[in-house]
Amino acid sequence: MLWIALTALATPFGQKLTDVKRDGIVDYLPDSADSTHAARIEQQLPGGEGAEVVVVYRRDGGLTVEDRAAATAQTAGIAAAHKLTAPPRGIPSEDGTTLMYPVATTVPGNVNLARNAFVDAVREKVSGGDGLDVQVGGPSALQRDMEEVFESVDGTLMMVTALVVAVLLILTYRSPFLWLLPLAVVGVAAVASQALIYGLVQGFGLTVSSQSSGIMTVLVFGAGTDYALLLVARYRDELRRIESPHEAMWAALRGCGPAVLASSGTVAAGLLCLLAADLNSARGLGPVGAIGVVCALAAMMTLLPALLVLLGRRVFWPLVPRYGSEEEAGAGRSGVFAAMGGVAARRPVAVLAGGAVLLGALALGMFNLPGSLKQEDGFTERPESVSAMRTLADAYPDRASQPILVMAPASAADRTSAEARATSGVAAVEPGRTADGWTEFSVYAKDAPESAGERATIEALRANLDPDGAYVGGPSAQQMDLEDTNARDTAVIVPLVLAAVLLVLIALLRSLVAPLILIVAVVAVWGAALGIGGLLFGPVLGFAGMDPGLPLLSFVFLVALGVDYGIFLMHRMREEALAGAPPRDAALTALRTTGGVIASAGIVLAATFAVLATLPLVALVGMGVVVAAGVLLDTFLVRTYLVTSASLLLGRRVWWPGPLSRGGGTPRE
Q: Residue 578: what pLDDT?
């Protein structure tokens, strides 16, 4: 009843989360970067943040007099409908095939809505036909196309993820009813997490982007289903041993509860380490993801057990676990994983060495990872804004089509203007608004946007203008700051995540050796998964670049989520050792009894992240591919063979320095 009331209360608030998402560029930029300061100052100037587009007219055989007249009339209509910062002025290409009109205005109030409305209005007023191609590009048009993709992400991601999880649960449970319970409960957890995050946005100003919201959905479904699989598998075993479903559930919770708590703890702790990030999008993802995981844990450890006990054994029909029955030896997944354990037991050194060599070979693919992703390469399907940028790059090879934003103290405006004009690589400097002690400049580089030449120009501007107290921003500068900050955040957060996860593992396993084995294993999986990305991104998927945040975020997810399966395996191994089983028997029994549920959980988690690969954004596709590949490697190679082989080789020493390393435990009767 409590969960019914909570769901009824949470649903209307969860639905409001979409209204408070923030996808402005400042919400993704590094907090301390030059480009972030420039963007914030620009937003405070009279009229608000600038909105810039470029209207591109092109005819392959050369523009006609009629084409130029149409372009003049259409851009004049734009100027009549909007208060532009400057009258539209056409700039022809040298070959006479292209004419571009930079058009800019200011957008007060809700920046995203006003900017998007401006882009939509410009697109409605321009048109081509009969061989004349008209495109609207520029920074604001690119941002608009990006937000259109994000607007479709939430609904698509939720539906596809739910469908994938439903299919996998049906195949796992082979029951017409049982799969409904975990899916319904994880849906409740998703609603609860959305409502809770909405409350934190309203109460504490938590920043939630479409990206972090989408990843949270994947985490809730993936992690929640994993916890459900572990609980249901343990509950099924206890029903064969205990007659009362209520008592069987208590036994199942006592048995797997610590592992599930530790598992969710590692994920939440790893995600919360992102609070140390300077990148706004990464820092916001930390608490958003952690809230999703905690809600999934709460629902799976309270609501799901209540529903299972209420429905009794019949919920497992047609494979009902009878009291006093035993699973057939060698049958199903237990038999498969018993056979895998036999391979590891017969040749542990060869298996461990072979697996390590395979992971190392895959990790070499990291050297083939593409460079940083340019804005125009961020879509898997080219939108209008990117097509316009490509057209401009071809028609104007010696001129940038988007400005570099410079915000200078008004007292140093003249000096800043002169120094900017004298900077190598600068083609033009246009002054803009002045207010609140700041003056705005649009600086045009001689080189194309995001080219090596433009980057050099931005670096030179920052070096020359920094003594004046000026900030250099704009789209290309923002990309540079994203790359630099991701490198800094990776160096800071990776050790924090490893330390947090290691502490949770030590507390759970009462050992130093076993946690270190698991940590080394997940780091090796991360390297191999990135290597697989290097083999796929450019050669197979045709990506021209990689999101600079992928290494860090994939590390957090693969370490925090991947170690879950090690927790499930090692915790069961420790249970067997505490009951008096010899080290060899404890390791093989743990693999045999948990192998099936770990395999199912790994497939579900990999499939939920793989859903990201269906979205039309290169950054999300890359995340889905790397994390899914890493989870599958972790599930079917590392846990099954490598961790088991290492445990067999070390014997009791795997529990050092705890009492189990000295033969402690309760002997079997």
A: 87
